[in-house]
Amino acid sequence: MKFKGWIITLFIIFGLGYAGYAYLHKEDKLTIKNFEMISIEPGNIKQEVTASGKIQPVNTVSVGTQVSGIIETVLVDYNDEVKEGQLLAQLDTSVLTENKNDAKAQLDLANAKLKIAKLNYDRYDKLYKNKLIAQATFEEAEVELATAEANVLSAEAAYNKAEQNYGYAQIVSPVSGTVISKEVEEGQTVAASYQTPTLFTIAEDLSKMQIEANIAEADIGMIVPGMIVSFTVDAYPNDVFQGTVKQIRLSPTEESNVVMYTVVIEVDNSSRKLLPGMTAFVTIVIEERHNVLRLPTSALQFKPNSFVRQFIPKGKIELKTNEAIVYQFKNGQVIPVIFVKGLSDTSWIEIKSGLNEGDKVITEFIQKGNR
């Protein structure tokens, strides 16, 4: 009986010891409840670049004046359609007319002096050939004739300039298009002494517009001419417009230490909804894949802490450039799994191999006290 009692006592002591050990070390174990998991399922991935830019006419022409004067008449207003060669404004021509008349008088005087110089030359030429005058006298007649001819050329140039300036008093449109800016009113004085003042800005064809979007250098390598672009504007929030990448300008700018490149996007504006200066919010689709295995990019942000690392099997992990690592929970252990990456966007990353549909991966560790 004593022996049997000792056996029972030993079993009781062993059971109590094991229970105490399990209680003291229960915090050193992990269960699936310690993790937030996500199941791998197929879906769509769209890699795209977003930007913004101003909508502008493809070609605008600034119309100015090369002569100073008072604006006598303005014949067009904002939004007017004009044709090439159409009169837009007229400067006062009174001073220009006087300049032209004065230049004509100087030309007539130079022609008269040339006529006299020719007569003198012909007369001295005959006398010199008959040896009736000295050579020096004949040479003086030659110089006077040459001077008179040069004076006529100078007077002709002055007259042509005055006549041209007179023509500049009529401000005409160099292209057909729409007046989008008018900087002058009747009675206003314009001065063209140092630079040509702009009187009107004409957009050549508002049915065709373009967007100049700034793209960061990290994304510019994915963009090529011909790509389809979608964009919206605040004026029509429910409408999605389309365009095409036309040009990538090679002159970069820098904004907040980020190198940016200007991408020019062609836009059909036959509806005339889009107006110059509107801000376009651009989306350029680089690549799109449907029904592929994908993983939230947040799963790649999970990094085991020192406690969780106790449950990761020992071993060296080496990743190639197209690989990434996620973690699964199996049989009380945290198992690292390497998979091959494919296309990615801001939310999802494609799984080329290494994981299967339905696999669960860890996205977050839940602290013991928060269970």
Write up what this structure looks like.
This protein has four helices and 20 strands. The model is unreliable at 17-26 (pLDDT under 50). The two termini are 49 Å apart. The strands form four sheets. Strands 2-11-15-13-12-16 form a six-stranded antiparallel barrel. A four-stranded antiparallel sheet has the order 3-10-8-5, with no helix packed on it. Strands 7-6-4-9 form a four-stranded antiparallel sheet. 26% of the residues lie in helices and 40% in strands. By secondary structure, it is of the alpha+beta class. The protein folds into four domains: 27-45 and 291-370, conserved putative lor/sdh protein from methanococcus maripaludis s2 fold (Beta Barrel), CATH 2.40.420.20; 49-58 and 203-288, Elongation Factor Tu (Ef-tu), domain 3; 61-90 and 173-202, RNA polymerase II/Efflux pump adaptor protein, barrel-sandwich hybrid domain (OB fold (Dihydrolipoamide Acetyltransferase, E2P), Beta Barrel); 93-168, Helix Hairpins (Orthogonal Bundle).
Q: What is this entry, summarized?
A:
By secondary structure, the protein is an alpha+beta fold.
Which labels suit this protein?
four-stranded antiparallel beta sheet, Elongation Factor Tu (Ef-tu), domain 3, six-stranded antiparallel β-barrel, elongated, alpha+beta, 371 residues, single chain, conserved putative lor/sdh protein from methanococcus maripaludis s2 fold
